[in-house]
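Interim report, section 4.2 (structural modelling).
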Amino acid sequence: KQEVTQIPAALSVPEGENLVLNCSFTDSAIYNLQWFRQDPGKGLTSLLLIQSSQREQTSGRLNASLDKSSGRSTLYIAASQPGDSATYLCAVKNQGGKLIFGQGTELSVKP
Amino acid sequence: GAVVSQHPSWVICKSGTSVKIECRSLDFQATTMFWYRQFPKQSLMLMATSNEGSKATYEQGVEKDKFLINHASLTLSTLTVTSAHPEDSSFYICSANLSGDEQYFGPGTRLTVT
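Predicted structure of the assembly:
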């Protein structure tokens, strides 16, 4: 059974810092991996999608990497801003098409 | 990008009543939609996979007679919580696949059962 773990559960940083969020998964037979952002009481916004054959994806200040063999992904946020404060969720899609989510990392960027 | 809407965004109902939540894909057709539940400070848990024109596939531990799913068209799936109880209070989110890869999520429905 696929399990997805995110570390840390919560993170508080001052504005301008670069930071890394971690995601690990137990079964490397994934179809893709997606990083989402969720604001309190809201739905999910897709940030980056990495196919199983890819190593990384970049969008603006965000960079996500994938190491399928070790079951790890990282989300790198450069020059963090208060507007980046949210919960970040990692999810892997298995071969059956289902998304399995991690518990999320609650990020707070202080001005 | 693809847009998924949900209605209502929040609902309060009395214990024992039923509540219907709609999920629509606004600018694309979705043969498959997914329903998730999220408790406070927890992650999303997949409840069921909704397939257009056929029965939904429920995850282990989810009561199919309590959470009725209907996917009558390529743009609409509904989740009906029957005989709701306070423990059913949660945040319900639907999603749909676009071209089999990226999943797009609705804004969620906050259900409170009193």
